[in-house]
Amino acid sequence: MTGRDRMVLIVVVVLVLLGAGWLLVVSPERHKANGLNSKVSGAQSQLSTAQAALASAQAAKAQYPKAYASVVTLGKAVPAEQEVPSLIYQLEQASNSRSVDFNSIVSGGGSATASSSTSGAAASAKLAGFTQMPFTFVFSGGFFSLEHLFGGLTKFTAHTTSGGLEVSGRLLTIQSVKLAPENAGPAGTVKGPQRLSGTITATAYVLPPSQGLTGGASESAPGGSPSPAAAQSPSSPTAPAIAKVTP
Amino acid sequence: MRAVNLIPTEQRGGQHVGAGRSGGAAYAFLALLAGIALLAVLYGKAHRDISGREAKAATLTAEAQRAQSEASALAPYTSFAALRVQREQAVETLVDSRFDWAHAFHELGRVLTAQTAVSSLTGQIAPAGPATSAAAPTPASPSPTAAAAAASSVSSATPPGSVPVFTLSGCAKSQRAVAQMLVRLRLMDGVSAVALQSSSKGAGGSGASSGGACPASFPSFTVGVTYAALPSAAAAAAATKPGAENVSSAGGKAG
Q: Which of A16, A226, B170, B179 has the fewest CB atoms within 10 Å distance of its CB?
């Protein structure tokens, strides 16, 4: 073996040693270090998500009094129970202020027309998580008084001009209206405003029994964890409310 | 003559001048040491990176867990806020899907003249699709939203696509007054079709069944008024509210 051969052999051996050191020791460590970048990124992402959830929860806590007031107010539109006395009171008040007589209220759809229409309403109430309560109201008054009354019934729960909801009473969806003269006589021969009998088929809504008005929350703090999903649970048919008013 | 190499044997070709007696092994050893030192530096740096990143990941994870636990403690508030939003949306959907009966009657009172007297008026929200009432005329061109709404799920007692239909019966002073009434009924907001079902003198007709017959010289008429199908709640909401979302109580204003 010449000197040159020895030198080449030595260089090769040195390179092999250094390469082995790189491959076996340094490179795995560097690979591990790079792999930790993804772990750090994942942790950073997890932290961001958690911080966002925390911020949302803190905002929800800060807004709780307002949210509680809103839910309670919405309870006037869609109460947790049938609240028929309250409905009668509201109808009586609305009709009195418009010189209309509130003659009767009967639970359930009064006519075939109403029932065919409310078959879709059952599904809708289910979808919204609300149970429907069909009613038939009979009022008597002048045409324009009844017109104003219809507007009043609608405005129990209505949009404000700013787009918010204003709730002053029960949410009612009128499905049919029938107007007919109260006193018989040749049409077109009656002088002056004629009193009409207005029969209205309308639907009120009730929260499903699985939900309380506030989901167990109190004014100071939420009592439990009312799941919004519970609001979507299928609602069972309401036992018919029975209320008749004889003026 | 034979050539004689005068160079000493140990200094002949193949051997570098600087190799020295070790034959270059010393340089190779130094290079090896330098390489090992470089590898050690790189290893140390990588190891330090690993330690630092692991510590950072642990810190971030701990912070995330703390934030999650705090958020979990506030979960009832979050759930209540979700409940509120869900209730508001449900109520708004129902509010937006209603037909404006008061406005319809207001318009009706505006367009009817003294030449006509309505003795019976029936209005109803027909289910989506073709009008089902025998007294109600079928719209000449059914609204495309009606079919779409019929296929989709409903969200109100008066679901989108439902068609409000009015049926008017009464007396007019002349057939010309009936014609005028038909024209004026078309002027009402949202009316898509007005169809005369009958107008006849001396029949007594529907007027008799609902409050009294017409005088012999007055024609008795029955007219069907069909409104445009109710829009979807989203469309109605977009048309009615600019975007604010709050609930206000108007206690004491009922009625």
A: A16
